[in-house]
Amino acid sequence: MPDKYGDGPSAIVVGGGPAGLTAAISLAGAGLATVLVGKRPARPDNRTTALFAGSVTALETLGVWELCAAQASPLKIMRIVDDTGRLWRAPEVKFAADEIGLVAFGYNIENFHLVAALEQRAGALADLRLIDDEVRSVAPHDDAVTVTLKSGATLSAPLLIAADGRRSLCRAAAGIAVDERDYSQVALTVCLKHTHPHHDSSTEFHTPSGPFTLVPLPGLRSSLVWVLDPAHADGIKALTDIELAAEIERASHSIVGKITVEPGRGVFPLSVATARRFGARRIALVGEAAHVIPPIGAQGLNLGLRDAASIGELAVATQRDGGDIGGDAVLDAYEKMRRADVSSRTLAIDLLNRTLLTDFLPMQGMRGLGLYMIDRIGPLRRAVMREGVAPAAAEPRLMRGEAL
Ligand SMILES: Cc1cc2nc3c(=O)[nH]c(=O)nc-3n(C[C@H](O)[C@H](O)[C@H](O)COP(=O)(O)OP(=O)(O)OC[C@H]3O[C@@H](n4cnc5c(N)ncnc54)[C@H](O)[C@@H]3O)c2cc1C
Question: What is the dihedral sign for C-alpha 229, 257, 213, 288?
Fold first, then answer.
């Protein structure tokens, strides 16, 4: 049997987080010889991800979802509650998935279950070689990109997919600049047990420091993402589990009853960052290497999975046509496929976050009016719901359930 890697792989993926694993599985699942090089993250990831319907369909199509579906909770209702206590408060807005013909907007799953399922699927693919190592340098050439690993080994391929996160070494090697801004906010993440059922609902309380969002997990459990100003976060971090549970119960107005905090808290400084191009010099950026947005409206990894599905689709089609899978034509097409989706969501989330933080009354009024209109105007309401879970522009094929 010929060795698929005899002439080197078709693609190298750098980064074994959820975006990188998905990109690697989409290429190798379609028969492209692929190498994924990933170093283990420094800390365990206790976050959860709300995956919208298109992301779940893509994971189903890639043979991943069946490996983790039992650990995910459906997200059937999404509520937004204005808890700013300000003069111009918005009405409560409640979206139900069945209003737009869906059983659920998506599913919420702990990141370690999702990554374990992706790793299991990746490990079963004959055309995917997994290397547990760190990429130390990346050198783009005219016809290939060469990476050097910590072990000293080198690898070359015509296409490199950079999924190495927000401080991407590969992005720097591609010479791509980033527009970036820090918010003076942090997100505290923790999983909770509670005494009342969540009824498959997520609830986003809008507070003056940012959203406080409870998202359902299977059984009597939920995950919390609590956006705070850094001084408040320091105080919250110092609390014992019992004190923290009491704070959360108060902030959540006891909607899920008595709370017990599970071990493992995460604290994430919030920022927004967008790469000026999503590909250059045979390097395509996916996931947080391409864009970082604050955890409001659960958009970050859903965008990252659409990146992975898009570059997978373009690379597979180009390889089948005998073209250059890392060439400018593929990178230009990738840029076109992804830019509007990423820019529009980054803008919307940034705007929503700023209207929460501002003390400027007209801005607060705008947010209230916007939410009021969304609540009351049926077609607008459904359009917002559809756009929240999937872009109006063409989705990549995997998101439509079509294998590559
Ligand atoms: C509090 C919070 C809640 C969130 N909730 C949601 C949500 O509900 N829904 C949603 O869609 N998104 C959510 N997000 C966003 C989501 O978590 C991110 O988009 C996602 O984790 C990014 O995945 P990634 O694979 O791009 O990057 P990462 O998970 O950062 O993976 C990058 C990987 O690359 C590896 N790496 C880095 N450098 C190298 C190197 N030189 N060599 C080899 N490997 C390397 C790292 O070790 C890491 O494993 C949330 C984010 C936060 C902060």
Answer: positive
Q: What share of the chain is helix, strand, coil (3-state, %, to 5)?
A: 40, 30, 35
**So what's the pLDDT on residue 366?**
58
Work out the average pLDDT over 102-128: 96
Inter-axis angle of helices 300-320 and 328-357, to 10 degrees? 170
Which among 8, 307, 288 is positioned nearest to 129, based on CA atoms?
8
Task: Give the list of residues 6+ apart from residue 307 with CB closer than 8 angstroms, or none.
Answer: 19, 23, 278, 285, 286, 287, 290, 338
Distance from the Cα of residue 400 to its chain's centroid = 18
Distance 297 CA to ligand 1 centre (A): 16
Phi then psi for 50, rounded to 5 degrees? -85, 110
Tens digits of residue pLDDT in 184-222 = 889 999 999 999 999 999 998 888 777 899 999 999 999
> Is the Cβ atom of 297 under 6 angstroms away from ligand 1?
no
Contact 37, 149 (CB under 8 A): yes
The whole-number average pLDDT for the span 322-338 is 97
Using the 8-state DSSP alphabet, how is residue 278 labeled? S
Number of residues in the chain: 404
Tens digit of pLDDT for each residue in 239-260?
Answer: 999 999 999 999 999 999 999 9
Separation of alpha carbons 144 and 284, rounded Å: 13
359 C-alpha to ligand 1 centroid (Å): 32
CA distance 274 to 294: 12
pLDDT tens string 157-185: 999 999 999 999 999 999 999 999 988 88
Residue 169 near ligand 1, beta carbon < 6 Å? yes
Cα separation of the two ends of the chain? 24
